[in-house]
Amino acid sequence: MTFARLTSALAMVAALAVAAPASAVEKQDGKFWMVIGGRQAVSHVDPGQSYDYAIRMMTQALYDGLVKYTGNPPEVQPWLATDWETSEDGLTWTFHLAPDATFHNGDPVTAEAVVYSYQRVLEMNEGVAWMLSDVLQAENIKALDEGTVEFTLDRPYAPFLSFLPWWFIVNPAQVEANVVDGDFGKAWLTEHEAGSGPYSLEKFDQGTSYWLKRNPDYWKGFPYDNDDMGGIIYRLIRESSSQRAGLISGEADLVTDLTPEELQVVGARPDIETTSTPALTSFGLKMNTQGEYTSDLNLRKAIAYAFDYDTFVQVYNGNATLQTSPFTDAIRGKVDIDMPRQDMEKAKEYLAQSAWPEGGITLEYVYVQSLEQQRQMGLSLLNSLKELNIELEMVPLTWPNMVARAGDVEQSPDLMAIFSTPVSTDPDAVAIQYHPNSHGKYYGSHFLDDAELNGMIEEARKLSDWDERAPIYAEIQQRIADLQPEIFGMMRERQFAYRTYVHGYEDSPIRMTGEVDLYPLFIQP
Amino acid sequence: MRKMIAKRLGLMVVMLLGLAVITFTVANVAPGDPARLAAGPDASADMVEEIRVERGFDRPLPIRFGIYLGQLVQGDLGTSVYTGRPVLQDVAQFLPATVELVLFSIFIAILLGVPLGVLAAVFQNRVPDHAIRLLSVSGVALPMFWLGLMLQWYLALDLGWFPLGGRLGIFDDVPPKITGMITFDALLAGDPATAGAALWHMILPAAALSFPALAAIIRVNRAEMLEVLGRDYVTNARAQGIGPFRIIAVYSLKNAILPTLAMIGLRFGWMLGGTVLVEGVFDFPGIGLYAAKAAISSDFEPIMAVTLILGAAFMLTNLVIDLAYAALDPRVRNQI
Lengths: 525, 336
Description:
- The complex is a heterodimer.
- Chain A has 16 helices and 21 strands.
- By secondary structure, chain A is an alpha+beta fold.
- In chain A, a hairpin with a 2-residue loop joins β1 and β2.
- The two termini of chain A are 42 Å apart.
- The relative contact order of chain A is 0.15.
- By secondary structure, chain B is mostly helical.
- Chain B has a domain of 191 residues: MetI-like fold.
- In chain B, 77% of the residues lie in helices and 0% in strands.
- Chain B is globular, with a radius of gyration of 24 Å.
- Chain B starts with a helix and ends with a helix.
- Classes of the chains: A alpha+beta, B mainly alpha.
- At the A-B interface, α1, α6, β11, α7 and α13 of A face α2, α3, α5, α7 and α9 of B.
């Protein structure tokens, strides 16, 4: 090719680029493809391996579970299972499957497939396995007939149903055909799927974009009368400012997890809708209850009363709500508790009763080094603690280093900034975070171990009658608040922005920070 | 010459081994628990331990290093904890993108930097020199990240002249993979429009990436040209009535270009390892972003692989520059 031809080709492309600003509302083969700009890469689409918000968003579109969370407040709805019953002792759960459910390759979704999928995860002992591995043995899941599956638990476990939306059903025939060296098909399922969900995997371009093709024959149908949707592209846009630019230019139709500043900018435009709603996610400054200083309850109370709680809301431009209980608002059984708010007199009273009545100590505050908001919270705390003659050493760390320190009681810092998202609305999902079972996990960096609290948590999770459970959880919330294992903070709002031609967005606080339910979304220019 | 190349390549192997020891040690003694990260945030202690054993993180460091070296000589770079794929597959996907971007950037930097350096020297302390100095000082002072954002905001979003990011438009067909560099692959496939589109997508990231190198090339070339233009043989050439263009472009530039060449070699190595910020702004899926994600995730096998590959690239570039030195300067050639 001559230089002149290359130059003319370049000029042609340049002219096209200038003449037609990119817009994602393009039809490919006569269908709309929605572009979602997110910051987190999808490391795999195997519902049996580890999960984060990007993985969960994909797997939920590719696969179906027996049940699904929808709405606000989130409710568990029938999905692959049309109905179910529980034995009186709470041990046996029997699910009846939708007779018309099929995998993408046309195979029927059978009880055997359900058994296989659950056993696969339990045997791999990865991903969501932790939710049920203490109460469910692989051999105790049985197909009673083609459309009925029975789970027999080791002991009554009230939160059982609340975890099932995150257990997805794979097609055993497809997975088994791709097992290599007994790997449960993990390598293959990293970039392939064997599901029955509303979308199938069209392209997996790691580090760039992930294409989901709408399955027009989805056995459950779609909640909209519009056959123009071709699919959804989850495109990586790693910088918040680039997300904003992408949305404004139309290169992205919906962006997840914008910063509060970016949300304000795009929210002022007439062609963009924004949402900002409280999530299940809580944010707090966890205190190591077995640390040299913060093992002293009076000192913890003094710190809690010294903190300026308005900071929590201000750093998010008002897009946050203070917690009124250790449980966030959407958790079932949440009750309002009298939580500490800034009161320096009370703080001084508690400090006087502590082992350091004059202060004179230095505490360590660890936070994620790239998160400006967490630094600002540290500065606010530093300022407040000065009045108590307590110094604060602010230590920014990368997330892996924080996780490593949070996992060891000897290394867990006095205070650590932690976001935590429960995977279910069942109160056990939050209560267990204050039980020794959570020691070693990042949200267990408080290393709280209180016999009275532990007993209540263990008792409540065994009961199946909500009327019996509810008062125990009210006591649990009060007890956790009394023990002050953290400065209970706020519920940060989940923030999304999308073009006005995007329809069907459904908010649900059960979803993680940048997670969207793709199923109801569609484009209608 | 051959003896010198063989000696340098032998030395490279020793240096790479040293680099491997240092990187392996640093990556493994640094705090962070890759097994915990691979298992996920809610994983129980036994799930974490299973992954630790499965991935061999429980073994003593020297044994792990021995196993790693054994894999390495067989061409196995290990498996990424984060992507779950062989590191070789990841590197084969992401490295060509970065190499393509860096080649384009260095091309821009040379294409503009050398003539501007000459121009600044020829017009010393006059308006063109001052204007060029402003450019070169900006190149040194402006953070690459910020410059990238500004270019993206004004030239791509406001004016719509360039795409916001990526290597191609989201719906563009990618040419069959041969080198992994879209421009070359498209040309090899006889598809100049896609090659043009790929270059069009690279203009803004390349502009941001090349600016510091451009500034450095201008400054070094200007200084060298000033020195050469003051030499006796240049005065003699002028006295003999040789035209100014020939004096500058042929007699002076050839002597002034050597230090610039050495600097270009160094810059090329730095740029290969320093693209992460630009890749982040323009969502250019290259090795910089991959390495940064691996470092943040304590994903040590990708960290090792990227470090070794970039180290080797740096050493090879320097070897090529030394050979270019020899080709341009007979004195150097005679010493080899």
